[in-house]
């Protein structure tokens, strides 16, 4: 199959199909998820807390994300390569956003970028799209605004649903090729999807969006600790790796590795 492009995602929505998106930050998961047919690979700013050891997505920088993005782009030959613009790299002005978007496409080899925010960023999105940078908007719970939002909480409940629809429509009108919703009531997300011509992507947003995304270390059980309600675990990699590392350590200490078959 050829490369997934923006019009394929649009077609999926028009034909009532769903598409899948996973985060990935390096070569092997990029190769595997690409070969598995995942349509969109996201180099998320969640690399901050899933690769770089930070507690939140706030500290990660453009210079830290670019090499990860390049590694994924070189390793995936089918998926659309989508990169997050990290906190502080696009808020100042449309010009700053265009400059950062260009870096992700030129140095990171990304095909499109994602930024957090709604109607307030319409002008920014328009400038980027005009510059040839495809943009996905991210609304609902936006992790980069965690402190402004008062913590990890569902967005778009009650009257807030209207604002969410308005934000999504403003992004579409500005030229965004898709809108991602995080931690939004399923009913609200479905309303947004119905209001838009462009596809939507959900995480903790129910089944009414065009696409679904998960952070791969959550979905494959690599990360320890408590998982959000919206995460489904499709593998238990942490336990698998723990067992393997313990076995290797034991065999080295008891002298059973390496055996003759591993020696010259
Ligand atoms: O950075 C990230 O992982 C995201 C999620 C929506 C998957 O933006
Ligand atoms: Na993100």
Automatic annotation (TrEMBL):
<dbReference type="GO" id="GO:0003864">
    <property type="term" value="F:3-methyl-2-oxobutanoate hydroxymethyltransferase activity"/>
</dbReference>
<comment type="pathway">
    <text>Cofactor biosynthesis; (R)-pantothenate biosynthesis; (R)-pantoate from 3-methyl-2-oxobutanoate: step 1/2.</text>
</comment>
<comment type="similarity">
    <text>Belongs to the PanB family.</text>
</comment>
<keyword id="KW-0479">Metal-binding</keyword>
<protein>
    <recommendedName>
        <fullName>3-methyl-2-oxobutanoate hydroxymethyltransferase</fullName>
        <ecNumber>2.1.2.11</ecNumber>
    </recommendedName>
</protein>
<feature type="active site" description="Proton acceptor">
    <location>
        <position position="182"/>
    </location>
</feature>
<feature type="binding site">
    <location>
        <position position="114"/>
    </location>
    <ligand>
        <name>3-methyl-2-oxobutanoate</name>
    </ligand>
</feature>
<dbReference type="InterPro" id="IPR040442">
    <property type="entry name" value="Pyrv_kinase-like_dom_sf"/>
</dbReference>
<comment type="subunit">
    <text>Homodecamer; pentamer of dimers.</text>
</comment>
<feature type="binding site">
    <location>
        <position position="116"/>
    </location>
    <ligand>
        <name>Mg(2+)</name>
    </ligand>
</feature>
<keyword id="KW-0808">Transferase</keyword>
<feature type="binding site">
    <location>
        <position position="45"/>
    </location>
    <ligand>
        <name>Mg(2+)</name>
    </ligand>
</feature>
<feature type="binding site">
    <location>
        <position position="84"/>
    </location>
    <ligand>
        <name>Mg(2+)</name>
    </ligand>
</feature>
<keyword id="KW-0460">Magnesium</keyword>
<comment type="function">
    <text>Catalyzes the reversible reaction in which hydroxymethyl group from 5,10-methylenetetrahydrofolate is transferred onto alpha-ketoisovalerate to form ketopantoate.</text>
</comment>
<feature type="binding site">
    <location>
        <position position="84"/>
    </location>
    <ligand>
        <name>3-methyl-2-oxobutanoate</name>
    </ligand>
</feature>
<dbReference type="InterPro" id="IPR003700">
    <property type="entry name" value="Pantoate_hydroxy_MeTrfase"/>
</dbReference>
<dbReference type="Pfam" id="PF02548">
    <property type="entry name" value="Pantoate_transf"/>
</dbReference>
<dbReference type="InterPro" id="IPR015813">
    <property type="entry name" value="Pyrv/PenolPyrv_kinase-like_dom"/>
</dbReference>
<keyword id="KW-0963">Cytoplasm</keyword>
<feature type="binding site">
    <location>
        <begin position="45"/>
        <end position="46"/>
    </location>
    <ligand>
        <name>3-methyl-2-oxobutanoate</name>
    </ligand>
</feature>
<keyword id="KW-0566">Pantothenate biosynthesis</keyword>
């Amino acid at each position: 199959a050829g490369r997934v492009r923006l019009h394929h995602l649009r077609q999926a929505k028009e034909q009532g199909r769903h598409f899948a998106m996973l985060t990935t930050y390096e070569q092997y998961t990029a190769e595997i998820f690409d070969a598995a047919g995942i349509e969109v690979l996201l180099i998320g700013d969640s690399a901050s807390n899933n690769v770089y050891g930070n507690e939140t997505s706030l500290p990660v920088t453009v210079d830290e994300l670019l090499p990860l993005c390049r590694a994924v782009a070189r390793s995936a030959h089918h998926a659309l390569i989508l990169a997050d613009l990290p906190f502080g790299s696009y808020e100042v002005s449309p010009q700053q956003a265009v400059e950062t978007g260009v870096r992700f496409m030129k140095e990171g080899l990304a095909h499109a970028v994602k930024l957090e925010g709604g109607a307030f960023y319409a002008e920014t999105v328009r400038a980027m799209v005009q510059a040839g940078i495809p943009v996905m908007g991210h609304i609902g719970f936006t992790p980069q605004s965690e402190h402004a939002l008062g913590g990890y909480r569902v967005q778009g409940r009650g009257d807030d649903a209207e604002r969410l629809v308005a934000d999504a429509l403003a992004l579409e009108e500005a030229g965004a090729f898709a809108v991602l919703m995080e931690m939004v009531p399923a009913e609200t997300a479905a309303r947004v999807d119905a209001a838009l011509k462009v596809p939507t992507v959900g995480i903790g947003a129910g089944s009414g969006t065009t696409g679904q995304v998960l952070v791969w270390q959550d979905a494959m059980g690599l990360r320890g600790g408590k998982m959000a309600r919206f995460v489904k675990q499709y593998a238990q990699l942490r336990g698998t790796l723990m067992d393997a590392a313990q076995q290797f350590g034991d065999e080295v200490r008891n002298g059973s590795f390496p055996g003759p078959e591993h020696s010259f």
